[in-house]
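Attaching the record inline, Q. Sequence:
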Amino acid sequence: MPRTLPHVLPLAALIGLAAPLAAHAQGAANNHVLRVCADPDYLPFSNSAGQGFENKVAEVLAKTMGRTLEYHWASYRGKGGFSNFLADNLDAGKCDVVMNLPYGDNEEGYTNPYYTSSYVFISKTDKNYDITSMTALTRHPVTIGFEEDTTPETALQMLDLTQNAVIFHIADDPTASPEQLLQAVETGRVGVMITWEPAIGAFLKNYPDLTVTPVPTEEYGPGLPQVSYTYPMALGVRAKDTEMKTALNAALATSKPQIEAILADANVKSYKPPASVNYTNQ
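Structure, as predicted:
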């Protein structure tokens, strides 16, 4: 499952009772403000200049809710990764919402999804690779690139395809850009890159010779569960902050056309959600 993507990892750890109580009191005192925790330097998601698609969605939601938008800036890619980011910022009451959280998260509260996207294969169009599934990679002597600790990595391990692969750490490095994943394909460092599509969509206009193909749901052996590479993404709130969740769900519904336009402008492709996902989360 993605984080701000493209990682999979456990989310916020328990941090004690005092911080949630303080967060509730602080949130109640700021009911005219939408307080968002965001990364100040992680395009295309967000930056301190407000250029990311998550920034723009936050602006629309704040306006719809009649609130002033305020940011608390902190890196998703600091020590401890996204789980520590949530614990140290959202759960500690420094904000009331984060702009990306996998729908159905086990630790935090979450709204209805506002987009559903997928991991994708990226390759040079002129290579004519017939790669439409993870298992298809076993038929091609091609160097594979992927992000560490992701759903694709698990599948590659089961298929015994990691020995000659190139591992990337974009989601751990605050100085790195997801565009580096596309550059690796462009220069031939890897033949096929597997990554979370929203991380690279905005950069694809600079790489017209690349082909993008979504990774389909697959089964890797008898009795093993199907693995989906498509994830609905929601807004994250504190688990007990039902008031904020309800207000955000209403704003998401009202501003759906504007949000869809923002995502389209950032080239965030929309995919059909997994059949197992129930989007009712009021």
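The radius of gyration is 19 Å. Residues 3-29 have pLDDT under 50 and may be disordered.

More tomorrow.
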